[in-house]
Amino acid sequence: MKTSVKNNVNFYLFNDVQFETSAADFSQFPTVDLPEIAIVGRSNAGKSSVLNCIFNRKKLAFTAKEPGKTRLLNFFSVRCNGQATARMVDLPGYGYAKVDKSLKKNWEHTLLDFMLTRKMLVASLMVTDCRRPLTDTDEIMLDVLLKKKIPYHVLLNKSDKLNNSEKMTTLEECKKALEKIDTKFKINGSCSLFSASKKVGLKELQFKLGVKVGVHKDWNPSGILVKERFYQQTTPTSSTLIKRITYDKLNGLIITEECFDSEGIVVDCSR
């Protein structure tokens, strides 16, 4: 199916990334010289897999086989046209009960040091397992972020584990929870469904991250210049789907792609 929208979106910010350094404590943090996005989340929520997915790498971030084993802050330099443009920081997972208490306390101090001292921290990406979204420990982390006025986006990872009805219910519940938080702190958070293994929601997430570090400067969070186009396509099984593409009119970049069956139910576009 041919469209006038750029289907092979080149999110150039995310095509060139290099591992920069690991840090166990404040003294090892790199100089604050670039806009930074922190990736936070509970142990085993899939943070490393999400990071690998964002940059289309298999082993950029190490995926620990045992929850709670990722103990360092990992800094990644994101480059555009050969120059460092931003930094992604993968923070240790939190909330894993089997971790030694003294070690857990050290991690918590390191996380707080990072949140409180990084002057160019422009946003945070909270990765959750969509089957257990926004736990008590997630809300504690959100509280820290919001007190520092750091914008955030909650990524409901592993959405491929849910059916369509469960996905919509989970997404709506997350939005309602964030509305209560946003009312208290006057910061508008957001959330979206994601699957690192299936790359569902990837383009939308890349666009959001690009906005946060100033790459897509024409995007206005309160009034994006967006157009929607609808296409009808026939699948290999001869069923008909309606495909809705939302894209940034100024740059031609796809923000979201959704497909619906004849009854208006959201379905996988690749089926």
What brief labels describe this structure?
271 residues, alpha/beta, Rossmann fold, 2 domains, 7-stranded mixed β-sheet, 4-stranded antiparallel β-sheet, 26% helix, globular, disordered N terminus
Topology pattern, helix = H, strand = E = EEHEEHEHEHEHEEEE
Give the strand order, joined by hyphens, for the main sheet. Answer: 1-3-4-2-5-6-7
Largest sheet: 7 strands, mixed
The CATH superfamily of the largest domain is P-loop containing nucleotide triphosphate hydrolases
Low-confidence segments, ≥5 residues, pLDDT <50?
1-12, 64-68, 216-228
Estimate nothing, just give the exact number of structural domains: 2
Tell me the number of helical segments per DSSP (H or I, 4 or more residues long): 5
* Approximate helicity band: 25-40%
CATH class (first level) name of the largest domain: Alpha Beta
What fraction of the residues are assigned to beta strands by DSSP?
25-35%
How is the CATH topology of the largest domain named? Rossmann fold
What is the average per-residue confidence, as pLDDT, rounded to a whole number?
A: 75
The overall strand count is 11
Q: What is the CATH-assigned architecture of the largest domain?
A: 3-Layer(aba) Sandwich
Rg from Cα: 19 Å
Shape verdict? globular
Class from secondary-structure proportions: alpha/beta
Intertermini distance: 14 Å
